[in-house]
Write a structure and sequence with these properties.
6-stranded mixed beta sheet; 38% helix; globular; 7-stranded mixed beta sheet; alpha/beta; 17 helices; binds adenosine-5'-diphosphate; binds magnesium ion
């Protein structure tokens, strides 16, 4: 950590563990050791609220990927991991959760420092990660196949019997983004380990520190060497060879649709299984009966939570024309009064975007909206004099061909669009290449239930948005992805069915 950054951070109560974690460049976790990249290259990690350097981490490439996959392959068949009973695996995984919980303050500060979000949101992420981890661990002892009597036994004098075993799929290559540095990791690592797999985790280059802390927690809890490897580095140099590695049984990717396509192609070269959780342009649909005032903050959070950097973000607000003005004014009031600032400040309600690139991208979208004739109800500019802040922004007077309506912005920019009837809103809501989530806001259940099956989305909320639950499957249709996270479906992603047909 630079002197300047140390001075800046002194005004906050940084834990001793975090101070010493940041005191020197970090190493990455391969097998049982903390290592530099074989090339010696590093990458800088910045605090997006100030653009100051926090520390640096190794920049892995394919040589490091080979080592990590080898370590994971060895751990997969080792007596210490592959040889554990389900109950032993469960209890080991529960110990990891306990260590994460003991170090919750460290995790929270690291997430806020590298990702920018307010501490309260980092705390929510940790709570979510802990319950996900423990929920998954409990499935370890509940994994079941089925028994089926063969319909056409060929050797009539013998008795025939068939059953299925659920076996771990092997080494999982997990490549994750920066918007939820802990929960994105846990959503991949916890179900994979529960299934008995081993993991090579490649966090985003913007937020590698949380993943390294997770690696520390895993080792401290006694997870055997090689079960969880953490490779830091850039996407093309570290992520790409991981996705293309023949030693991988599954690639679990969360990120943009464009990179998801590259990963899918690389994986298909080896017929490697994939789970892709990709982008979205989710509609929030307010029907004619409108929303009560007490629901407005939830509607606003549907987009502005985590500065809009959420794959499920409700970036298109469709409100019935009778309630449109009132709903938009209500949401704009809340958005306009959000307190922006450093995530470590107690009063901060919305942090910066994750990086200068992301800030410039989002400001570029805002400019494109203004140029195309959209009307700015609130926001529309960079905020403050330093860091990657963008004001919460709402556009009206938009049409379907505008980039701000069609493309995923991944920032605090909402478009609000009136509609006259169900047919119109369905056509508009489904008019996107994405299909991650949608929400309907109404107490008119007959209308709600008519819309649910016709919305092209992997998850539909009613009177809520962005509220995932660890027991309920989550994933997209269309170009929002393949496969599911959470729930038993999420664990089964990392299991392969082996069929046994037996004559005796
Ligand atoms: P964003 O554009 O929001 O950063 P990405 O989809 O680019 O989202 O990044 C998500 C993850 O994918 C990150 O860990 C990133 O390093 C990784 N990544 C980026 N490009 C590639 C690639 N070509 N192959 C594999 N992984 C990649
Ligand atoms: Mg990228």
């Amino acid at each position: 950590m630079s002197q300047a950054q140390a001075a800046k951070l002194e005004q906050y109560e940084i834990t001793d563990a975090v101070s010493s974690f940041l005191a020197s460049p970090r190493k990455m976790l391969v097998g049982d050791g903390w290592v530099d990249a074989k090339s010696g290259r590093t990458l800088d990690v910045l605090d997006p609220a100030t653009n100051r350097l926090i520390t640096s981490v190794p920049a892995a490439d394919s040589a490091d990927v080979d080592d990590a996959v080898r370590a994971a392959e060895q751990a997969f068949v080792s007596p210490d991991w592959g040889g554990l009973s389900p109950a032993e695996r469960e209890s080991l995984l529960l110990k990891v959760a306990d260590v994460i919980e003991t170090r919750a303050d460290d995790f929270s500060q690291i997430i806020t420092l590298e990702c920018g979000k307010p501490l309260a949101e980092s705390d929510e992420e940790i709570a979510d990660a802990l319950s996900t981890w423990r929920y998954c661990a409990a499935w370890a002892t509940r994994i079941e196949g089925s028994s089926v009597n063969p319909i056409n036994p060929i050797i009539p004098e013998k008795s025939a019997f068939g059953y299925t075993r659920k076996e771990p799929i092997g080494v999982v290559g997990a490549i994750i983004p920066w918007n939820f540095p802990l929960i994105n990791a846990v959503d991949r690592v916890a179900p994979a380990l529960t299934a008995g797999c081993t993991v090579v985790l490649k966090p985003a280059e913007q937020t590698p520190l949380t993943a390294l802390l997770l690696g520390e927690a895993a080792l401290e809890a006694g997870l055997p060497a090689g079960v969880l490897n953490v490779l830091t580095g850039f996407g093309p140099e570290a992520g790409s060879p991981l996705a293309a590695h023949p030693g991988i049984g599954k690639v679990a990717f969360t990120g943009s649709t464009s990179v998801g396509k590259l990963i899918g192609k690389a994986a298909m070269e080896n017929i490697t299984d994939v789970n892709l959780e990709l982008g979205g342009k989710s509609p929030m649909i307010v029907l004619e009966d409108g929303v009560d005032d007490d629901m407005l903050p939830w509607l606003a959070a549907g987009l502005f939570y985590n500065s809009g950097q959420v794959c499920t973000a409700g970036s298109r607000l469709y409100a019935h024309k009778k309630v449109f003005d009132k709903v938009v004014a209500g949401v704009a009031d809340i958005a306009g009064s959000l307190k922006l600032g450093h995530g470590l400040e107690a009063e901060t309600e919305m942090g910066p975007l994750v990086s200068p690139e992301q800030q410039q991208r989002v400001l570029g979208y805002i400019d494109s909206g203004v140029e195309a004739g959209a009307e700015t109800v609130t926001g529309g500019k960079q905020w403050g004099t330093e860091g990657c802040f963008v004001e919460p922004t709402i556009f009206t007077n938009v049409h379907d061909r505008m980039k701000v309506v069609k493309e995923e912005i991944f920032g605090p920019v909402m478009v609000a669009i009136p509609f006259a009837d169900e047919a119109e809103v369905l056509e508009k809501a489904n008019n996107t290449s994405y299909g991650l989530t949608a929400s309907i806001w109404s107490n008119d259940l007959s209308k709600v239930n008519r819309l649910i099956p016709r919305l092209k989305a992997g998850l539909v909320w009613v009177n809520a948005h962005n509220l995932l639950d660890l027991a309920l499957p989550f994933g997209g249709v269309k170009q929002s992805g393949i496969g599911r996270e959470n729930g038993l479906d999420g664990v089964e992603e990392y299991l392969e069915t082996k069929t046994v047909i037996m004559y005796s």
